[in-house]
Amino acid sequence: MFFGSDNTSGVHPKLMEALTKANDGYASPYGTDRWTAELTERLRDLFQAPDALVYPMTSGTGTNAAILAAMTPPWGIIYCHKTAHIEVDERNSVPFYSGGAKLKPLPGTASRLAPEELHGEVISDGAKDDIHASPPAAVSLTNLTEFGELYRPADIAAIADAAQLPLHLDGARFANAMAASHASPWEMTREISALSLGATKTGAMAAEAAILFDPSLKNAFESNRMRGGHNLSKARYVSAQILAWLQDDLWLELATQANAMGARLAAGITEIGGELAYEVAGNMVFARLTRAQHAKAKARGAVYNLWGAQPVIGDPDQPMLARFVASWSTTEADVDALLATLTD
Amino acid sequence: MFFGSDNTSGVHPKLMEALTKANDGYASPYGTDRWTAELTERLRDLFQAPDALVYPMTSGTGTNAAILAAMTPPWGIIYCHKTAHIEVDERNSVPFYSGGAKLKPLPGTASRLAPEELHGEVISDGAKDDIHASPPAAVSLTNLTEFGELYRPADIAAIADAAQLPLHLDGARFANAMAASHASPWEMTREISALSLGATKTGAMAAEAAILFDPSLKNAFESNRMRGGHNLSKARYVSAQILAWLQDDLWLELATQANAMGARLAAGITEIGGELAYEVAGNMVFARLTRAQHAKAKARGAVYNLWGAQPVIGDPDQPMLARFVASWSTTEADVDALLATLTD
Amino acid sequence: MFFGSDNTSGVHPKLMEALTKANDGYASPYGTDRWTAELTERLRDLFQAPDALVYPMTSGTGTNAAILAAMTPPWGIIYCHKTAHIEVDERNSVPFYSGGAKLKPLPGTASRLAPEELHGEVISDGAKDDIHASPPAAVSLTNLTEFGELYRPADIAAIADAAQLPLHLDGARFANAMAASHASPWEMTREISALSLGATKTGAMAAEAAILFDPSLKNAFESNRMRGGHNLSKARYVSAQILAWLQDDLWLELATQANAMGARLAAGITEIGGELAYEVAGNMVFARLTRAQHAKAKARGAVYNLWGAQPVIGDPDQPMLARFVASWSTTEADVDALLATLTD
Amino acid sequence: MFFGSDNTSGVHPKLMEALTKANDGYASPYGTDRWTAELTERLRDLFQAPDALVYPMTSGTGTNAAILAAMTPPWGIIYCHKTAHIEVDERNSVPFYSGGAKLKPLPGTASRLAPEELHGEVISDGAKDDIHASPPAAVSLTNLTEFGELYRPADIAAIADAAQLPLHLDGARFANAMAASHASPWEMTREISALSLGATKTGAMAAEAAILFDPSLKNAFESNRMRGGHNLSKARYVSAQILAWLQDDLWLELATQANAMGARLAAGITEIGGELAYEVAGNMVFARLTRAQHAKAKARGAVYNLWGAQPVIGDPDQPMLARFVASWSTTEADVDALLATLTD
């Protein structure tokens, strides 16, 4: 009953197998190996982006920061939702990598940027056009969002229109977004300058790909990657995992399973009187259950996180928000077992 | 009719005279001169802070940044009002000097921090207590605020209580705040760890003092000051100005004049149908006047700034916000002349 | 015939097996798993350092930078040899992570720091004791060095005595140094505040451990690790590899093999008239061979690097320096095959 | 008898007078005043550089750092002499402002860069052309150098040829260099991309001009100036000083006087048995005198600095290096009085 995060799940057997196969003698280092070359071709095809540059990475935070620092000068502004991982969970990595750029977190709606609000901020900041002020530089989106919501291609287009700025997409759960949207990779990224494509949360070991759809980011990104300590010598092992992950749409299959388990959980929680806090588009469920229910679940070994500040004491009927995350390895039995812990 | 900013005014004759007197042969460099020693003693007495460290500076931005970077690790959070100069007008100087710290701008009320809101943010950020999150480090206040409002000592105490964090005070218009509050320097700063004391806007040439009430900030501040390029060789000329400024309470006299002109202007604007946007505590007046009035004033040579985004076209009765700043050298005749440009 | 670098070799089967075993269901993320706990205990025992803190990492550069930035203020000096990886091969990662600290590269002898020279620099820099100057903060050693030389425990003690500063050890080839020195881990690190323990070059996939012998580095290191993007969610896979690597002294066995192949190669090169440029203590051989020999080897498929600036044209007898690196997977047959390519 | 540094001298009366004249009512802030406009025109004419951008500054360190950070990416190398102020006396300001760029200090000859050595370093660093390495970005020269030596235009041309990189000139004592060389400003700077023109050491209060001969540096320089805290509100007072300084070649007159006093001192020191350590091209004299002579001078009130590490005890005949700096206000009587203190 592990619903703490999808990063607590293991590695899919096909990726383990790919690692074993890639472990075949010597290979040229730092991404000059044949797996990385193949990965580049594979991702260019998938995203219909023949000029895209592809880099195997082991860290989503490192990927985000190295990309965003290539998209802004040290004095620029990067807009994001106030719940964004880069704003909330990366200990100032973007100001660090960029040498001082500002993240401007916006309230939006739930965990999604609101195009009109974004537009207003960018216009207002851009209108200053003054050396005292910080100029708009880029927007960073997360899809699925931090609350498990989905941006569809039309949503992203609306944001692009509103901002008139280069867009970065934090795709820690990009597979879940793709599985939920049924859009093509190209449709989902046609407005995007650079994508942090995360495989770790969907079945890989520690494998991400930085994809630069805008090749002019090359030198700054590669420099940030290097000085950040993210230029892997044995890159083949990351590339080989992602190749296996993409093979026969395994990534979508795994995400579909995780999403289905999210939906099953959401339905079950509603049934037992829980209240869903946000749209459940994929594998993340935010729900309010009573203090008594949480206590019971915890006592019975369920693992998940209460969300936000929690009152220390309170009456058993008090609703408390929790986050449940299903993963590629979550089964129906797991979901049902979790639901059982919440029920008497 | 210069009401664009108090930094457009000149230097008070007594400060010019002090410069001339200080220009007497050789002096030991980098603040080891006798003027700086005397300034330190004078400010320690004034603030009843025998351990305070004092540094002559030429820049408010440099002073703020060098201080704040000594009050936070690169991964910390500094809370400020969303209108704060450090947030809006210093081109990311705090993330720059601190190596990545985050300014967290809060809405507060008008241009003042709201203690309860601040408390909530600090508690919420502090409660994470997780390596992913950024820990609370300090609070920066501005007094007078950017909208010309005043924090009284009790307001600052409430903020200190709410935040339980070290406080920095941006005192670009500290003299105006002191003149408006009738508090003692000690009362106004007893909760403050470090003060950027600005004299430039109140009659000096380019003269500020960094005052570290908390002497443990010494090494980091001095290092930031040095590597930021703010360790002046001929420091005597700044210290001599501030000494003259403090002499016989000249600073309060000049600020009192500026504040009185602010009040006169506010009264006059109200009289001609303008609407004051914020409390006028000192020398800054934010007021809504009609587009027609602004057009007239501008045509007649009045200098001041419309504030915020402005619609390009509109009807003559449309109210438009403007900022007027009086300075130590503003006269009643200046105010009346400005008011005349806004009338019939 | 891959002698380009030990990072071109694969992963040892026992580490692959450990990965498979660790891939067992869910595990708590970010190093709170049982493998990482066990690794901490194992390394504390090995180094006789009960208070040491241990962090699984995927990058040597990231480990070095996150550690060193915890050992210096942004205005400090870190001394290293002019051939050090941090100085030559990490694209300014240390000034980046530290927010501006200076690496001071010293000539030393070949690739080792010379205690007397280091002492002179530290004393001279420390004697300034002036806010204009940068104060000495730490020393970084590499063992094996970049030229494959060895520091024995007595050498490190001499450096510690000379510098009177905290020491960092870049142990990308620490296993090779241990196998060459026959010292105990404790003997080799008793003067060291923090160790970047590299397993990648000696049989792991992308696995390093940061070991803080000085626990006061904790907060700054963990913060740098996080904001640098090196706090792995699925840390178990790194920890499991290193545990397998340490098991039954596999690490020393692998390093011993690599070192033996280095020795065999050095002997063979000498035999065919090549000149060794530096002491061959472990698995790296720097040798001068004729342009004709290099041309032959290259034509026959040998992979290794010429070292330093190379004249574009020249006569066939001209000596040219090359670097050959043996790895844990290098066999006698590999060495002999390489030697054959160099011989007619 | 103040020979500690030229920054201990006062402000020339004509500059004080210019300050008084500039103190005439209101002026537009942040360099949009008429004095700064006039200064720009004046310097463009003087340097025959119609596109040059000019910025009044109060700090040489701030000027150097804001310029150099515009000339390099965070991962670049800036070459300088090992005695350069930016390397030795600015507490890591260049790595700080640039977000991590490396200063590469070179031995050169005495305090001047040696073109051949510089060429070798640039070629060697540039040849790596590898993401691990740091690419060459710029060269920074100081004229007069830190040891008071002179680069003539031909010397600078030789350096430009050797480096094939953009050049920055730290002109803290540019007036002294001009007076010594009898070159035209254009001749002295035709190879230079940006100049830190210092007036402070030659008669100003705290007045420097950043001159960008390469206008493409504009945005990055202005951003660094702003976030560094060097965008002065009351810029007119700096510009007015420099205008007065340039008027009727006052700057050259003052520098000529300082240089003449340097020459007189050098001759006098030689006469009393002192040994000059470096060429005395301008106003700085480095000389070895006996411990007994220094003791006498000090006892008689002479102010100057011993240079480098000093043995604590020693015999009275031991030669000890000292630095003497003459300024615009040094008189023949001052020099003779100093010499008298050194003689019995």
Automatic annotation (TrEMBL), chains A, B, C, D:
Residues 4-289 form the Aromatic amino acid beta-eliminating lyase/threonine aldolase domain. The keyword tRNA processing does not apply. Keywords: Pyridoxal phosphate. Gene3D superfamilies: Aspartate Aminotransferase, domain 1, Type I PLP-dependent aspartate aminotransferase-like (Major domain). InterPro entries: ArAA_b-elim_lyase/Thr_aldolase, PyrdxlP-dep_Trfase, PyrdxlP-dep_Trfase_major, PyrdxlP-dep_Trfase_small. Its cofactor is pyridoxal 5'-phosphate. It comes from the Bacteria. Homotetramer. Belongs to the threonine aldolase family. This is Threonine aldolase.
